[in-house]
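go over my protein:
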Amino acid sequence: MEGKAFKNLKIRVITLSDRASQGIYPDKSGVLIKEILENFFSDLDWKYEIAYNLIPDSEVQLSELISKSIENKEDIIITTGGTGVGPRDFTPEVIKKFPVKEITGIMENIRIKYGSEKPNALLSRGIAGVIHETQIYALPGSAKAVREYMTEILKTIEHLVFMIHGVDTH
């Protein structure tokens, strides 16, 4: 079964950035996530569709998008931005308002791996988890961090799709 998706994956990428949403500068991290996912799932020959949202740092808008994604039974949500400790960083708190089963090992691994070289990486409050049948990941807002996080996330994403849907691949 592995190597071929049993369904058309529905994926949502959400960038939170006041300045990018105002057109002050382009969104690089959300666009990069889309590109990485397109390459990954195309290489697997899986069918997928990616919805993309660029929103300001808004708890209400983020919560509404997550609710809509869960209601629409989207398979994967990846957010970028809002995982730091600044006054406008609230992404983990919004996600935790939902019945999320956190998969702490993914983010712990990332923080340890990259934090050993760059201690500021230890300040990220990124989250990986599952809400009902939807994988959810909260990544930092920098393109460099997105590359690092996605490298690690992609190692488990395929297996997790099968596990969530009760497909035995063993």
The chain has a mean pLDDT of 93. Strands lie at 9-16, 48-55, 76-80, 100-102, 127-131, 134-139.
